[in-house]
Amino acid sequence: MKIGIVTQVRVTSSRLPAKVLLTAGGQSFLEHHLDRLGQTGLPVVVATTTNYHDDVILEVAKHAGVPVYRGSEDDVLSRFAGAAREHELDGLVRVTSDCPLIDPAIISAAVDRWRSEKDLDLYISNCLERTYPRGMDYEVFSAKRLYDAEAHATLPADREHVTPYLHQNRSGEIRLLNLPWAGGGASYRLCLDTPDDWKLLDALFEEHDATSLNCAELVEILDTHPELATLNAHIEQKKLGE
Q: N or C: which end of the chain has fewer CB within 10 A?
């Protein structure tokens, strides 16, 4: 069974345009993100748009040795399905490119669990209930369920956010499994969506060598340096459909 990581990327983000191309620690945030995904040993696919603004994404991905699939800017569900078909994936890990510090070991453990269950109707995530910092989020599901969602999901939020049809079990056929973490830090933001998120990530890369740190080590730094955590503690996560 071929399982691959598909990460969605575009430069026309509303709150911080071209955020994944900003740099810290000598690399763009997208490069950090792809480096970490590559450490899982799984195939990685960048799913970007046909918008000419995203042409630059191809160059970053090419330099990283990661293939690119281009699809609809708004119908991200169809973009993921297209990437899965083109790369003949049986299972997918969905992540987003605004997570430059995502922990590859966490993804690998989730994939191992999904494989062991041998259930194509199983959806695994670590954010059905928030126990990890934002920026460590993943979802694992079968191509079979993705294609079913592509065929039957009709709400605009379903098409834009890829997986609501799955994790809300709209088909009535999905088995949901949340993999929690007891390491703390659920209130922390290690994702990149606003200028204040950028400030925190820049400090972690430039002052604390975040390139080499896992999730537990990052949480420990923020626990030890609350002045860092306060840099973006006020940011409200965008709601589904916003």
A: C
